């Protein structure tokens, strides 16, 4: 393993990477298109590329003059090609590790004095929330492991930890059609696709769509049915954490409370708002009826903005701090701290 002044860091024992866990861009023309969006207006700081494979996108990024590109690749098949690229470009660093293992690595670090992610973020600037973007991340999202990583990011953002401890990093993802449907779903038009992750995406991030691509631009060849092959696309999006996320958006900066409120209530979208809320604060129904709800209003009927308003109202009540909600949230947080990261019914 080279030291921090070197070109690349050696292999980690953190995880075994299955080939189908990690997808990369195989098409140079598509790589150029993605790189143009990723690098636009970016002439300082780092881009972190997850699973570059043989480096098609890496080359496209480097051709655009980006000063610092750090790639994360653990597949031996591609390391020789990436090292050849690094000989031509001194601004390319190779980390021989799996970025999608970040949740388990950080969890293990909580129980030891060893910090195993030092190389991941070495020399990356740590900015205050209002001081701009410290780095950009790009990844193809297609495997279950990568979707699970997205769910981890939602939880991490609520606590402002992990990648978000460095500031408002921008996330560029190539999303499969189903995940893009979750991202863009609306309660009235797409009730079946409207999930807890939908709400948190829309409340936590500014979302920008760039382009869509056919599935054949990624490798390994995805496994899909004939219908998916016919209709499936990959959608390039940018997720930027909201500037007001930790100031005025959620009442009293109760982001972790809000995260649990949404995850708990949107796991079962058909749950009725008033009975659930009265289970936490007895006889609160009349307060909610004054806000336009009725006994048949479901959590899945409410838009992200309405759910945020509901939580902000709920957390302002004098009963909030002593409510059963608090006990439920603490039990949830204890389970999360002692077990593997969230399993998601969407996976």
UniProtKB/TrEMBL annotation:
One of its GO terms (cellular component) is mitochondrial matrix. GO terms for molecular function: mitochondrial transcription factor activity; RNA binding; rRNA (adenine-N6,N6-)-dimethyltransferase activity. InterPro entries: KsgA/Erm, SAM-dependent_MTases_sf. It comes from the Eukaryota. S-adenosyl-L-methionine binds at residues 25, 73, 98. Its main location: mitochondrion. Coiled coil: none annotated. Its EC number is 2.1.1.-. Pfam families: RrnaAD. Signal peptide: none annotated. It is an enzyme of class 2 (transferase). It is found in: Mitochondrion. SUPFAM superfamilies: S-adenosyl-L-methionine-dependent methyltransferases (SSF53335). The keyword rRNA processing applies. GO terms for biological process: transcription initiation at mitochondrial promoter. Belongs to the class I-like SAM-binding methyltransferase superfamily. rRNA adenine N(6)-methyltransferase family. This is rRNA adenine N(6)-methyltransferase. The lineage of its organism: Eukaryota, Metazoa, Ecdysozoa, Arthropoda, Chelicerata. The gene is mtTFB2.
